[in-house]
Hints:
Layout: H1 3-7, E1 21-24, E2 37-41, H2 47-55, E3 59-65, E4 68-70, E5 84-87, E6 94-97, H3 102-118, E7 122-126, H4 141-157, E8 161-165, H5 171-174, E9 180-183, E10 205-208, E11 220-224
Amino acid sequence: MSPLAQTLAVSRWMPTAADTWQLQLTGTVNTSYPAQVYDIDLFDTPQATINALKAQGKRVVCYFSAGSSENWRPDFKQFAAADMGKALSGWAGERWLDTRSPNVRKIMQARMDLAKSKGCDGVDPDNVDGYTNKPGFPLTAATQLDYNRFLAAEAHARGLAVGLKNDVDQIAQLAADFDFAVNEQCFQYKECATYTPSRPRARQCSTWSTPRSTRMRRRAQRCVLRQRRCIFARWCCR
């Protein structure tokens, strides 16, 4: 754990089922929506935009890819050649990362330090299911669980809420470690039923639709864990 993480309080904001969300990862962020939580890009969003959202009383969740390198990011050159595997199909400039690598984990720690310093309330780490793809490394379910728990612990150490992006097959094992979940194409892949509560009282969620023209602008659903004791809440599939 980095020195910054060690000095920060572990208390953190937790999203609730009643919160409304706005997801925008490209272009100039439109801050006029009456949403309570904004999910925006960690690197591309100017500090002034985050400051403006916070001044409005909004919560800010900052997106970054934790499982792939992106050759346009400012810290791209910090990845070693051995850290990067096969290309992500359909996404130019991205390659799967060896999430077992200490160097990769160090870079992710620095990204969460950046999120904390910019005033983000939570993080939305993407591509955390590399083992189900063909990353070019011998990643397994066990290595993925280890990495995802690493990400959750590092976020919490900085007082940040953390969401689980996809990784549907490991929801049950990771529910206690994460504060909310993001599924990009729940309806398309018929995954909504996977997000079933372990207790009826835990059923809570919100949904939204986004344009399909660019990555992550697809129909998305988000649910919130209640007190981190239950399996992820069921989606509101309408």
